[in-house]
Specification:
This protein is α/β, with parallel strands linked by helices and 263 residues long. The chain has eight helices and 16 strands.
């Protein structure tokens, strides 16, 4: 049976209301795919919501190599913000007709990780993935919607980048496709040149782009996630614009501009 992992983030999550056109379209796309027998899992981020909450409590938003620096104090607020996003997202998708359930990487010991160390502190990386809780939801015909909060070996919470969580899940599940929804249509060989888009890019070139800095800021963890997913067993990784209505449907049908990362 086909498996699909969809990662949502960026401005696609700006409107988490029940009437959000983006979320309504996503619910319709996923409902149709589930009806075709496809097992779907959604992973979400929440960078703007985290930044907003941190600003309200006068804590800084700091990044290094595209990943949020997360002090123990910041970690508590990150977990709060992502829990709020998860509940709102599940509520909106359910309202639009999708049978879904909210989870985090902590639930069912789905994802275990470890701290990235200095300077990231409680920002983490994935060590192990146990998909049993996802399979249980699929058996009951629910779409899991996963927040990227994970736990370490001491049961302490970690903030894991949502792209990296999606890549790890796609690899562990042997997903047919990982869709990384961004705020742009395609990866650029030069991030400052809109004409340098890539429809297909090899894993080797992606590694070069990461090391050279051409894949920078938020694109860096996306491309790292793509490499992780392909090396761990996912068959296909596609970058697409999550602000396009019905982006997931159109990725599946190959009718919108995308970048496919190939092994």
């Amino acid at each position: 049976m086909t498996r699909l992992v969809v990662k949502m983030g960026g401005h696609a999550l700006d409107d988490l209301g029940a009437t959000s056109p983006v979320l309504t379209a996503l619910a319709e796309d996923l409902t149709a795919l589930v009806g075709e027998g496809i097992e779907v899992v959604v992973v979400h981020g929440g960078g703007p919501q985290i930044a907003d909450l941190l600003a309200r409590v006068s804590l800084p938003s700091e990044f290094h190599e595209g990943l949020r620096i997360t002090s123990p104090e910041t970690m508590a607020y990150v977990a709060m913000a992502l829990a709020s996003v998860n509940s709102a997202l599940v509520s909106a998708l359910t309202h639009a007709g999708l049978d879904c359930v909210g989870l985090s990487g902590v639930d069912g010991a789905m994802i275990r990780g470890q701290s990235l160390g200095s300077p990231w502190d409680r920002a983490g990386t994935v060590v192990t993935v146990s998909p049993r809780i996802l399979e249980a939801q699929w058996h009951s015909r629910y779409v899991p919607v996963v927040s990227p909060i994970i736990a370490d070996e001491n049961a302490e919470l970690l903030n894991c980048n949502a792209d990296l969580v999606a890549g790890a899940l796609a690899g562990a599940l042997g997903a047919d496709t990982l869709v990384l929804l961004s705020d742009i249509d395609q990866l650029r060989s030069d991030p400052d040149d809109v004409a340098s888009v890539l429809s297909h890019v090899s894993a080797a070139r992606v590694r070069d782009m990461i090391s050279s800095g051409a894949a920078r800021d938020g694109m860096r963890p996306k491309m790292t996630a793509a490499l992780d997913a392909l090396s761990a067993g996912a068959r296909r990784v596609v970058l697409a614009n999550g602000l396009r209505l019905h982006a997931v449907r159109d990725v599946v049908h190959g009718v919108i501009p995308t970048t496919e990362v190939v092994a």
